[in-house]
Records
---
Amino acid sequence: MSENNNDNNATIHTAAEPVMAKTDGTGDYGTTAHATTTRISVEGHTTDSDSESAAVAAGLKHLESQEIKWYSYLLTVDFWAIIALGQILALCITGSNTFTSFLSSVNTIIPAFQTLFNYALLTIVYLPYTIYKHGWAKYRSILWRDGWKYFILSFFDVQGNYFTVLAYEYTNILSAQLLNFWAIVCVVILSFFLLKVRYRPVQIAGILICCGGMGVLLASDHINGTNGGNGKDMIKGDLFGLLGATLYGITNVYEEWFVSKRPMYEVLSFLGIFGVCINGVQAAIFDRSSFAGATWNGDVAGWLVGYTFCLFIFYSLVPLILRMGSAAIFDVNLLTANFWGVIIGTRVFGYSIHWMYPIAFVLIIFGMVVYFLAGTILGDSKKPWLGDNQKDGVAGLGTAKLKALNEARRKGLAREEEVAGEA
């Protein structure tokens, strides 16, 4: 589209000196950070303190007014980045499950304790950086004002991990994997009612196709007899799995809401801090008896390191796919973890690949393609709960707000010397 399109008429006025984006009376910092802006007139009105909002409005209008085909979003970098990120996350989950299998094979079953190291690593990496970016005074203010919100997020996340692992102890693998579909259902329902997300028919069709692919995968497991047989207590295990999947769905929606409003490093730092506290208490209570019969040697230490490393990468990348996509597309991507699990299983545990596995994988990927058909050029990165022009959102990596700011600068809709986003 021509840069001189009349539909994107914007007159630019450069201020005599830069105008820094203001914060609200509560010290809210989520919308911008360290961004130097200018006085801009968009669609005939001039703003000073709202200069960033004007630039975002101009950028969004230009992006959304472009003529697009049904396949346009599939040609964007964002789409392929979401696919790639999704497969990296699926591999991380597969890796963590593989290391857990190694630990279980030597009777080292400590689900709460082994996850504790991940939360500790998140704290070690992201807390110092958060304090560096915000300073002690602002950090204490955030902790006082929003600490309880982060505690709830961490609590849901820890309990989701705990009950899902617990489900595998009582039920068979087939039942536990079938219950994972419930996480997708929870995400769609919660996003619809709480975040005001409105799914198009093609998006629902895409999700259903992905679930169909997962069904093919599970059917092949059943045919091969790799569903784990009868569990110790199927009803109890299924209830644990249902609870774990529900908690995962709540966590994913809650985290998507958080990372759209807050810097990713801040969310991860608080997730780590409260995760250590909550998980530590659970490990002390529920894993204490498991330590006596557990095996402790160099191999176990290595498996714990591998498990922690996979989970740390997973947690670090999740906020990015939640910004660029959504909680729904994040959960749909994870359906391919079972496929990668079989690939690794052929090398590590001697599994054989059934002919239905490639069909299942193709169906899941095809479902993700269908999900984004006839969508906007911004995909799911534009969040409806952030208000007009994403004014309540952070201008961070992967967000529609940062894309709009960059587009405004690139197309000459806003002459800014610097458009800086907050990760």
---
Amino acid sequence: MNNQDLLAVAKEYGSPVYVYDAEKIEFQYNRLTKAFSKVNDLRIHYAVKALSNISILKFLNSLGCGLDTVSIQEVKLGLEAGVDPARIIYTPNGVSLEEIEQVTKLGVQINIDNLSILEQFGSRHPDVPVCIRINPHIMAGGNSKISVGHVDSKFGISIHQMPHLLRIVENTGMNINGIHMHTGSDILDIEVFLRASEILFEAAKNFPDLEFLDFGSGFKVPYRPGDIETDIEELGEKLTERFRNFCRDYGRELTLAFEPGKYLVSEAGKFLARVNVIKQTTSTVFAGIDSGFNHLIRPMFYGSHHEIHNISNPDGKQRFYSVVGYICETDTFASNRRISEITEGDILAFSNAGAYAFSMASNFNSRYRPAEVLWYNGQAHLIRERETFDDLLRHQKIIDLEPQKQD
């Protein structure tokens, strides 16, 4: 997609609007599979929570990608998209036993991350194959809110609880067919990831009937020019060697699985917003746009960086702007950022808007959630309509109320 393509999308579908480039998603998927091409059986499960539009799920399914889900709703979306249940893994956190049992009936791979539910599920369903999520106690991730493998994390069963875990498995006679880990997002150092993988290999030796090892994901993508990213080719070479050695020692070939979300869709996404007002104070020039953290909360929630380009005036003189939204709380997308000169009515494009962007959008301030567009084969395809006022009222119940009489 070039600037003219994006401007045409904004003109046709209005702003704000999310646009996803199918070609970039496919490129990232192929890059990952190529990096691990020497693995005999590689399985990629896309993390649905990153971007759950059903057209995106159908496209990834067409590439041969499975799904990583964290809720029964995501499982059902995957099935609706035509994904084979055998290629869906369900990795919830803190959900009820009842939900896990409902998902079991849908035929997907269950992944359990706490001892209490593991024992209850194993006692009631010993024949259902279960994967176990291990917490390797390895700190990874670019932000404390997305680091999930550390010692005080709510995710996974502590590697130090292995004796307790094994007693549960023995007492229930349950079928453990996979071991899983996820250290966190935005992995900067592959050596940290490899150290965690060695812990997973060691844990796997306790289970004689494994079919796969799932290494999660968290691969970092660049957010600005020259930014560091996970060296997926180096990781592929080093982890493949370790995995093949493990399979040889284990006595048979296993499946190597990953669960990338951001890695596949982040760079494919652009968020387009129109500038409503230029406001200059004594020290700052604000560019106020027709959106806010109700549509893109990552900068406020994670402190994430999104490159912002004025695609209406890409070659204009560079000036410094603070890009802000219209929410009646502080919602700053960028402070004192160098951007081509902005005038009211210009369209700004936010990069890396494919992951955890629309999927975290809300109706805060009773604003409508934006449209979504997939750029596929050189054409724009609407994959979600912009919400309307009727959507805000759709599930509300209006009742007649009268003032209470005062004695």
---
Amino acid sequence: MNASAGPLAGVKVLELGTLIAGPFAARFLGEFGAEVVKIEDPNGGDPLRKWRMLYPEAGGTSLWWAVQARNKKSVTVNLKAEEGKEIVRRLASEADIVIENFRPGLLEKLGLGYDVLSAQNPGLVMVRLSGYGQTGPYRDRPGFGSIAESMGGLRHITGYPELPPPRIGISIGDSIAALHAVIGAMMALHHRRANGGKGQVVDVALYEAVFNLMESIVPEYGVYGAVRERTGASLPGIVPSNTYACKDGGLVVGGNSDPIFKRLMTAIGRSDLADDPGLAHNDGRVPRTKEIDEAIGAWLAERTIDEALEVLNAADVPVGRIYSVADMFDDPQYAAREMIQRFKWQGELDIALPNVTPKLSETPGGTRWLGPALGEHTDEVLRGLGYRDDEIASLHERKII
């Protein structure tokens, strides 16, 4: 496994979250060298351990867990017990970053709010992920990524106008929020280290993270009252950018920059459109979207995917087939970039996992170990906090850990 220390070597992260948004943020930091201690309930741990496909199938552990919890240390703690809370307080006193995604107010009820933890560690950065944020009239509502995708505007513009909005097949709202959490944590850490600042709270609302990616919908509505609607596979107002049918499947073609449009039209034998001054710029192409799409569609309908790719790649036009995961495993670009790596998990399973992104030339991230067993690092971490073996044994006996 990758032995690189990573750019975040020496950064200590305490993860108090479950499922997706918080743990994905902590996973990202751990992949680049941070020491991540994940607190889990002794009774079953993070529910993600049992999500989707399991290995072994009967009573096993989620294959997703292997990647979501890689490079993390699992420590089991009963947060309802005062001695369990004390373990968390001691870990937080040494941490640079605490990541949590409980419902707002829960940490305060446990006596583990930022006011308490920062009193003993003024430099602490606490990243808080929740459906609606730590303030506002909705703060106490339960909020999942799917709800955030809806409230943030993504669902409304996704799909075909004659059909109800579909969901994207992954938990994209949680993942978008997690990336915002990582960015916020890094900015707060930089401020503390480079500007002599103190710690602070990074408040990430899942719906706001989705909303942040919604491009021009706010000014378009604010100025013109325009509400962007579902447009199927096309990208509204940016022409041409669509999915088209070939003889044996579909291709995505992005010919929406001015020089690319000219090359695309020339490549498909439509020099009349390539040389039309009215189509030289995007604002002229938008009113003629149907005409342009029909021209591209007619050309592609007579060709296989491979035939079309050969012509359009030669013309330097952005084009691509729609990959399944099986396509990714066979693709030479994925292979050249080592984006799928193989490991041994649980001592016996050959497992393929996605490589770490992004790629840093001098301090790359990597996979040091895969998702740990429940409580695998409890004793080790407690010894590092100064607990004696007899104290640890007592905590085990009393089900504190």
